[in-house]
Recover the amino acids of this structure.
């Protein structure tokens, strides 16, 4: 904690420290000292404070000091302290921060797409999809976000090598993110039920997507000599799912669809949960595992 005394000499932080003492008493002054060190730890762990919410700080402080920091005036103070910390430490981002997982490398530019209402990029979509797949590796196969566009433009020959090391017909569930223009949606394939389902948080239906996937499955079954999978497929289904009320959360919805489908969980989230879920996904990417 000693190294964090440098922050106290910022006019903003000295003011906040005095105000903190007036509002909360001497115990809160000790909490303030701990607070700065805690934010330092978050910054090193996540590369930024993007996934950190004031409720996280309140919970941490309550655990350390055995006091109720959830009172409104104390929560407001925590929010002010976070803002002061960010001002005193510049952009509050660690230069050169990286997350490495298998072949994936996420930079702060990638992780920052999870902030606010930014559009998620392919790097975030693909690494998170792999985390979903690796949480149930025997049951789920997640296709790279570039798969569908390659299939759509090049046909089966353009993607036939993408599954050379995996037998998709031995899986229970296939997850295929669809990125068309500036919108993300999802096609899922239930291998056992032989059904193809389309998920879109804008509640539109692009019938070409499931049809392309169906043709791909037939071609793959022929090449892999899985002729039992040439027949028995049911019609295409469109699921009525939670609806986004902006133009930026489609990627976040798709990743949550993937997670819930893979883990057999209900879609118990909506638009209002997206800020919290974006922060959670940021943390999951940094930990390189799903937080269940």
């Amino acid at each position: 904690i000693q190294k964090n005394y440098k922050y106290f000499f910022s006019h903003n932080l000295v003011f906040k420290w005095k105000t903190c003492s007036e509002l909360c008493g001497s115990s809160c002054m000790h909490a303030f000292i701990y607070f700065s060190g805690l934010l330092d730890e978050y910054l090193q762990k996540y590369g930024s404070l993007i996934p950190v919410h004031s409720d996280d700080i309140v919970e941490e402080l309550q655990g350390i000091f055995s006091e109720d920091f959830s009172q409104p005036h104390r929560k407001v103070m925590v929010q002010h302290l976070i803002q002061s910390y960010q001002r005193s430490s510049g952009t509050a981002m660690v230069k050169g921060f990286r997350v490495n997982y298998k072949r994936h490398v996420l930079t702060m530019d990638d992780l920052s797409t999870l902030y606010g209402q930014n559009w998620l990029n392919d790097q975030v979509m693909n690494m998170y999809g792999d985390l979903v797949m690796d949480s149930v590796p025997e049951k789920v196969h997640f296709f790279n976000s570039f798969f569908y566009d390659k299939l759509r433009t090049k046909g089966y020959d353009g993607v036939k090598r993408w599954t050379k090391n995996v037998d998709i017909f031995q899986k229970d569930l296939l997850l295929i993110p669809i990125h068309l223009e500036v919108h993300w949606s999802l096609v899922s394939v239930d291998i056992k039920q032989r059904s193809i389902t389309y998920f879109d948080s804008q509640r539109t239906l692009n019938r070409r997507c499931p049809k392309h996937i169906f043709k791909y499955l037939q071609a793959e079954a022929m090449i892999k000599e899985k002729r039992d999978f040439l027949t028995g497929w049911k019609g295409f289904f469109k699921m009525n799912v939670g609806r986004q009320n902006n133009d930026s959360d489609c990627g976040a919805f798709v990743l949550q669809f993937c997670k819930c489908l893979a883990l057999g969980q209900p879609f118990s989230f909506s638009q209002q949960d997206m800020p919290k879920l974006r922060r959670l996904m940021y943390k999951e990417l940094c930990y390189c595992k799903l937080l269940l």
